[in-house]
């Protein structure tokens, strides 16, 4: 069930994981905030890529990741596959390589394994879906 609370949380996530927050972190956070800014930017683009809901939102917001899909070879599909999924893999690998931390501490540096799996599965499925839709005569 969708509740008012879940709608509010979704709205708040979209405001925190946004291009403007990423830019503010880059501008004011220095090198200490660099990876956080990258995380925010990645997830802003990820959500924009999957949340294309009309033909004009990308134009009005001036965000190319929110523009409608026009082909199965759209650059965003390549971005999802080559950049976003690679980012998730590198993030997980870099934390697991930090042997100075316990497994519990490493887990606190990551999203849950189930969430990683869900992101990967959703991303791969979305790529295949968009490519399939544009193959239909």
Explain the overall architecture.
With 137 residues, the chain is an all-alpha fold. It is built from 7 helices and no strands. α2 runs antiparallel to α3 and α5 packs antiparallel against α7. It is globular and about 55 Å long. The model has no long low-confidence stretch (mean pLDDT 91).
Q: What's the average pLDDT? A: 91
Helix content: 55-70%
Structural class: mainly alpha
Query: What distance separates the N and C termini?
Result: 36 Å
Q: Quick one: overall form?
A: globular
Overall number of strands: 0
**How many helix segments?**
7
* Structural Rg: 17 Å
Order of helices and strands: HHHHHHH
Q: Unreliable stretches, pLDDT < 50, 5 or more residues?
A: none
Largest sheet: none
| Fraction of residues in β-strands | under 5%
What multimeric state do the chains show?
A: single chain
Essential attributes:
single chain; mainly alpha; 7 helices; 137 residues
């Amino acid at each position: 069930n969708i509740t008012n609370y879940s709608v509010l949380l979704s709205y708040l996530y979209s405001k925190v994981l946004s291009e403007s927050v990423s830019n503010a972190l880059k501008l004011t956070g220095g090198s200490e905030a660099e990876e956080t800014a990258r995380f925010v930017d990645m997830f802003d683009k990820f959500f924009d890529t999957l949340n294309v809901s009309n033909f004009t939102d990308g134009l009005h917001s001036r965000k190319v990741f929110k523009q409608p899909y026009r082909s199965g070879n759209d650059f965003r599909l390549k971005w999802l596959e080559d950049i976003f999924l690679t980012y998730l893999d590198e993030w997980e690998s870099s934390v697991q390589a930090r042997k100075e931390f316990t497994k519990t501490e490493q887990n606190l540096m990551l999203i849950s394994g189930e969430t990683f799996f869900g992101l990967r599965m959703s991303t791969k499925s979305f790529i295949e879906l968009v490519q399939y839709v544009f193959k239909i005569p």
